[in-house]
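Example (one chain per record):
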Amino acid sequence: MTIGEKIKAFRLYRGMSQNQLADACGIISATIRKYELGIRNPKPDQLKKIAAGLQVSDSVFYEFEISTAGEVAALLFMLDNAIDMELFETEDNVALKFKDGFLKKFMREWFAAKNKTAEIKSDMEKVDNDEAKTAIEDKANEYYNSYKTAALDNPAVVKKSTEGIVIKNYAAFLDEE
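Predicted structure:
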């Protein structure tokens, strides 16, 4: 998903028009339109304004290229430093166990969403019509992307020793005064 597609997805998730997002972040709507269409890419300072207008972290717009074991290891080390988790060994695997209640719930829901998406896509095998297959695949992708968008929107703090803390974003209310 491109940055522009992510901007659009979060905007739609928030129920905002391009004009409303433009007002919320102080960027003209024509520029928002160009970002969403992929005609232009926002600079980091513009992306921060858009993220603030959408009430999300600007980190949700970035993609990470992960192709080597070293890159996976770096992400795992960052997780280990940031959140309460433990490694444990089962008979066949080594696994991560999250101590934070939100992360446990998130992992269960993510597992269910991935299974539901796979189930929807397996229905494609039963259909001969290419148009119907495309519709089923679109439905599966829409389901999973809506899950991901909602998951990225959660304000629960999961840093070490912060279980149960939630940060509310009141920036929208300040603008109304």
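Caption: Residues 130-152 form the longest helix (23 residues).
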